[in-house]
Write a structure and sequence with these properties.
It holds the Pfam family Peptidase_M23. InterPro entries: Cell_wall_metabolism_enzyme, Dup_hybrid_motif, M23ase_b-sheet_dom. By secondary structure, this protein is α+β, with helices and mostly antiparallel strands. It folds into 3 domains: about 5-50; about 55-160; about 175-315, Glucose Permease (Domain IIA). It is about 40% helix and about 20% strand. It is built from 6 helices and 15 strands. It is rod-shaped, with a radius of gyration of 46 Å. The mean pLDDT is about 80.
Length: about 325
C-alpha cells in the first residue's frame, strides 16, 4: 500500500499528492493521543466507579469475613462476661465470706484502663466502632480477670492461714461453766446500775465469785493491761489476728503482762469488782476492726446447742447491767 496520500483537485481534474510537514505530523499524532487519552480516562473512570477490581473484590470479601468474626467474638465476650460475673458473685458472697475478707469494691473491679486516646490508631475506618467496642470490652475483661486473680491469691493465702484464724477468733466463754453463777446482762441497751438510765451495754456480764479464773478466748498478744478505779477498773485487752480484739474488765488481779503471747484457755486474770461495778463479775467485749460487736456469737467451741440457746435467752433480757 502506498505511504502517500492524494487529494482530488477539481480545478485541474487531477489527483494531487498531499505533502505533510513535520508540524502536520505532530498535530496528527497529538490529536490521536489526546483522543485516546480522553477515551481511556472515561473508560477507567467508569470501570473504577461501577466495577470492582479483583483486588478490591478480595478485600471486600475479607472485610465481610472480619466483620462476621468480630460479631462472633462479641458473642463469646458476652458469654465470658456472664461467667466472670458468676465467679465474682461466688468470690464476694462465698469465698471471701468464709474467710471473713471484705468484698472487693465494684469501683476497683470496674476501674477504667488507659486514656481517651487508647484506641486512636484504629479510628477512622469503616468498621472502627465495632473494632473499638470489641477491644474495649476485651480490655475490660482482662482488667477484671487480673483483679479476680489477685482476689483468689488473697483467698488462697487466707485458706493457708485458716488454722491460725480459727485459733485467733474468740470462740469460748471467758469463764468456765462450772464457775459461772449466771449471765447478768447481755449486749444492747440496759439500765445502768448506778445512773439508773437506759444506756448501751457494749459487752456481756458474767457473774462469778471474786478470784474466779478468767480465760483468753482466742490466741493473741496482750495489748493492754491497766489498773484503774474507774470505768472498766482493772482490765486487759488481747489483740488477736484478723482484726479481732477482746476486753476483760473489773478484774481483781492480773495474770499477764503487756506484750505477752497467750493461747486460748490461758488464765489472764481473776474476777473482781473494780472500777464502775456493783458486784463481782466479768465484763467481756469483742471488737472486730475496732467496732464493738455482740459477744454472744463467739461461744461456739464450748457450749452445746441447748446451752447456747439458753445463753441467748438470758443475755437478751432487758435487765440491769452490773457496770
Amino acid at each position: 500500500m502506498s505511504k502517500h496520500k492524494y487529494i482530488y483537485n477539481p480545478n485541474t481534474l487531477n489527483y494531487e499528492k498531499i505533502n505533510l510537514t513535520f508540524k502536520d505530523h505532530l498535530k496528527k499524532i497529538g490529536s490521536t493521543l489526546i483522543t485516546g487519552l480522553v477515551f481511556a480516562s472515561i473508560i477507567i473512570f467508569l470501570a473504577y466507579t461501577f466495577f470492582d477490581s479483583p483486588k478490591e473484590r478480595a478485600l471486600k470479601r475479607e472485610n465481610k469475613q472480619l466483620q462476621l468474626q468480630y460479631s462472633l467474638l462479641n458473642k463469646e465476650v458476652d458469654q465470658i462476661t456472664e461467667v466472670l460475673k458468676d465467679v465474682v458473685k461466688r468470690d464476694n458472697n462465698i469465698y471471701r465470706v468464709i474467710f471473713e475478707a471484705d468484698p472487693i469494691p465494684q469501683s476497683v473491679r470496674h476501674a477504667g484502663i488507659g486514656g481517651v486516646d487508647r484506641y486512636s490508631e484504629i479510628q477512622g475506618y469503616e468498621f472502627s466502632d465495632l473494632v473499638v467496642e470489641t477491644r474495649s470490652r476485651i480490655d475490660k475483661i482482662a482488667r477484671e480477670l487480673y483483679i479476680q486473680s489477685k482476689s483468689f491469691d488473697e483467698v488462697i493465702d487466707l485458706a493457708k492461714r485458716k488454722k491460725e484464724m480459727l485459733a485467733s477468733i474468740p470462740a469460748i466463754q471467758p469463764i468456765s461453766n462450772k464457775d459461772l453463777t449466771r449471765i447478768a446482762s447481755g449486749f444492747g441497751y440496759r439500765i445502768h446500775p448506778i445512773h439508773k438510765i437506759r444506756k448501751m451495754h457494749t459487752g456481756m456480764d458474767f457473774t462469778a465469785p471474786t478470784g474466779t479464773p478468767i480465760y483468753a478466748t482466742g490466741d493473741g498478744k496482750i495489748e493492754y493491761v491497766k489498773a484503774s478505779r474507774r470505768g472498766y477498773g482493772n482490765h486487759v485487752i488481747i489483740k488477736h489476728n484478723f482484726g479481732y480484739k477482746t476486753l476483760y474488765a473489773h478484774l481483781s488481779a492480773f495474770n499477764v503482762i503487756a506484750g505477752q503471747n497467750v493461747k486460748r484457755g490461758d488464765i489472764i486474770g481473776y474476777v473482781g469488782s473494780t472500777g464502775t461495778s456493783t458486784a463481782p463479775h466479768l465484763h467481756y467485749e469483742v471488737l472486730k476492726d475496732n467496732r464493738k460487736i455482740n459477744p454472744i456469737n463467739f461461744f461456739f467451741n464450748d457450749l452445746t446447742p441447748e446451752e447456747y440457746d439458753k445463753m441467748i435467752e438470758l443475755s437478751s433480757s432487758a435487765n440491769q447491767s452490773f457496770d
